[in-house]
């Protein structure tokens, strides 16, 4: 009895948590290539066009998630993904890098304010949300180089103060972290402080999940992580901000990279999220350029990502 009412309550929460979502479809993109070279406007625009031209997707992949507001190689110049998004009619899930001391984090705030001044509503109209931080709580729990919950809460309030009275006010302010950082009791103050949760979950990296990390269990593992996060979300929407299945790389326990398995993951897990209009930022569009990484998650191989074929079928 108790069990089934919990399940019903969770199902109702799941629906409430998703009702407000708009089904944004996008990819994660860093400010640098894996070689360390800084991406420029032309590089971001190229990725955005490649995403919109992905075969069999009806041009639906029009959003991009950023990790920082700062253009690589500068102190607080707005990242050139902003003019690239304006140019390509893309939307942006902004990110402020929060695993820093307060004085360094101030550069993120300054870049955010500079972007509002420089680009105005052409910029603010295309913002889907603002994430303060990325996996900071997870990293702090693993090796101490992230940020504490108190620090993240402080940076969230600094961000809210920075956008108050600007055309960004009213955009949802969230935090991105691994699903198990959100379900950890120590981090509930962060959830109380945000408008949405950005959840990262990789069944590939979960060999100890019930049923293991073989591709055949990945869909179950992913949605258990999602449902557990929804259960911790205080009724707030849970966006998917990173997930994927690697195409090339080492076997991790029973998890085998490969295009066939990535296709399976897409068809089962990604398509289920899209069918339910859950905001989705996939990891990732392109292989690392100029350097081999292991594992490699790119739907498109390195090089000409506009014209090279996708490594697996993207229909749902
Ligand atoms: C930009 O995207 C919006 C919404 O997807 C669409 O209505 C509009 O026509 C697009 N504009 C251009 C110039 O492509
Ligand atoms: C994947 O998981 C979702 C959520 O539990 C479920 O509805 C769907 O049927 C699953 N897909 C497959 C192919 O098992």
Automatic annotation (TrEMBL):
One Gene Ontology cellular component annotation held by this UniProt entry: fungal-type cell wall
InterPro entries, A to Z: Beta-glucan_modifiers, GH, Glyco_hydro_17
GO biological process: cell wall organization; polysaccharide catabolic process
Main location: membrane
N-terminal signal peptide: 1-19
EC numbers on record: 3.2.1.39
Keywords tagged on the record: Carbohydrate metabolism, Cell membrane, Cell wall, Cell wall biogenesis/degradation, Glycoprotein, GPI-anchor, Hydrolase, Lipoprotein, Membrane, Polysaccharide degradation, Secreted, Signal
Subcellular location: Cell membrane; Secreted, Cell wall
Membrane topology per record: Lipid-anchor; GPI-anchor
GO molecular function annotations of the record: glucan endo-1,3-beta-D-glucosidase activity
Pfam families given in the database record: Glyco_hydro_17 (PF00332)
Catalytically driven reaction(s): Hydrolysis of (1->3)-beta-D-glucosidic linkages in (1->3)-beta-D-glucans
Entry similarity comment: Belongs to the glycosyl hydrolase 17 family.
Function: Glucanases play a role in cell expansion during growth, in cell-cell fusion during mating, and in spore release during sporulation. This enzyme may be involved in beta-glucan degradation and also function biosynthetically as a transglycosylase.
Name the record gives this protein: Probable glucan endo-1,3-beta-glucosidase eglC
Species, as recorded: Didymosphaeria variabile
């Amino acid at each position: 009895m108790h069990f089934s009412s919990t399940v019903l309550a969770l199902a109702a929460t799941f629906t409430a948590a998703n009702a407000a979502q708009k089904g944004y479809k996008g990819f994660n993109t860093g400010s640098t290539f894996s070689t360390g070279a800084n991406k420029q406007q032309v590089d971001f625009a190229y990725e955005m066009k490649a995403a919109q031209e992905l075969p069999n997707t009806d041009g639906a992949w029009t959003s991009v998630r950023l990790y920082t507001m700062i253009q690589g190689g500068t102190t607080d110049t707005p990242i050139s993904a902003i003019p690239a998004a304006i140019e390509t009619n893309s939307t942006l899930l902004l990110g402020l890098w929060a695993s820093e001391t307060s004085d360094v984090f101030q550069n993120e705030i300054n870049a955010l304010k500079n972007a509002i001044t420089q680009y105005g509503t052409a910029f603010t109209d295309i913002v889907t949300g603002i994430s303060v931080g990325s996996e900071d709580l997870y990293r702090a729990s693993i090796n101490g180089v992230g940020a504490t919950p108190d620090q993240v809460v402080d940076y969230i309030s600094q961000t809210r103060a920075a956008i108050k009275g600007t055309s960004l006010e009213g955009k949802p302010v969230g935090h991105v972290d691994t699903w198990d950082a959100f379900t950890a009791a120590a981090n509930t103050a962060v959830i109380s402080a945000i408008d949405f949760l950005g959840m990262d979950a990789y069944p590939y990296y979960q060999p100890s999940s019930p049923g293991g990390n073989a591709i055949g269990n990945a869909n179950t593992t992913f949605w258990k992580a999602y449902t557990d996060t929804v259960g911790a979300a205080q009724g707030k929407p849970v966006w998917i901000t990173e997930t994927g299945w690697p195409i090339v790389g080492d076997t991790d326990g029973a998890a085998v990279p490969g295009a066939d398995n990535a296709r399976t993951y897409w068809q089962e897990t990604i398509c289920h999220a899209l069918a339910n209009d859950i905001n989705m930022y996939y990891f990732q569009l392109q292989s690392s350029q100029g350097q081999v990484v292991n594992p490699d998650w790119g739907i498109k191989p390195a090089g000409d990502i506009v014209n090279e074929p996708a490594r697996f079928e993207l229909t749902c």
